[in-house]
TrEMBL record:
Its main location: membrane. It comes from Motacilla alba (White wagtail). The chain crosses the membrane at residues 22-43, 64-83, 89-110. Residues 1-114 form the MARVEL domain. It is a multi-pass membrane protein. One of its GO terms (cellular component) is membrane. It is found in: Membrane. InterPro entries: Marvel, MARVEL-CKLF_proteins. It comes from the Eukaryota. This is CKLF4 protein. PANTHER family: CKLF-LIKE MARVEL TRANSMEMBRANE DOMAIN-CONTAINING PROTEIN 4, MARVEL-CONTAINING POTENTIAL LIPID RAFT-ASSOCIATED PROTEIN. Keywords: Membrane, Transmembrane, Transmembrane helix.
Length: 149
């Protein structure tokens, strides 16, 4: 919602002198809104369970990390180049708020990714131990005779 609000604020600006900062902020806010919205829809409808080949925790981590970084850069650039109009100030404020929320979400995504990595590694080690134990069990089958007897 903050990315959407920042995008709406930046779209209300009618004229700009150096427009590069405004265009960059517009691109970042729109991109973050689209990618985050697509992932939100994917997770909400449990469609991510149909594609188990993708590490969704890592995908969410990369999205939130990149969104945090680019929103911060775009907000700083727009704050440095703004003309003190109401829409630009509002866009900068919502840009920094979106940066903060994406940063919190990135922190949560890191915790979730670490937890899933630990569970996956413990599952792999338990499978290895089970396979080693089963391979050491000797099955006495009378149809197999020893040759040295």
């Amino acid at each position: 919602l903050l990315a959407l609000t920042a995008f709406i604020c930046i779209e209300t600006i009618m004229e700009c002198s150096p427009c590069e900062g405004l265009y960059f902020f517009e691109f970042v806010s729109c991109s973050a809104l689209v990618v985050t919205g697509a992932l939100l829809l994917l997770f909400s409808l449990n469609l991510h369970t149909r594609i188990p080949q993708i590490n969704w925790n890592l995908t969410d981590l990369v999205n939130t990390g990149l969104s945090t970084f680019f929103f911060f850069i775009a907000s700083v650039v727009l704050a440095a180049l703004n003309h003190k109009t109401g829409a630009e100030i509002a866009a900068v404020v919502f840009g920094f708020l979106a940066t903060a929320v994406y940063a919190v979400n990135a922190f949560v995504a890191v915790q979730k990714w670490r937890l899933s990595s630990r569970q996956q590694s413990s599952r792999q080690s338990s499978d290895y131990i089970r396979a080693r134990t089963e391979s050491r069990e000797v099955v006495h089958r009378p149809e197999i005779q020893r040759l040295d007897a």
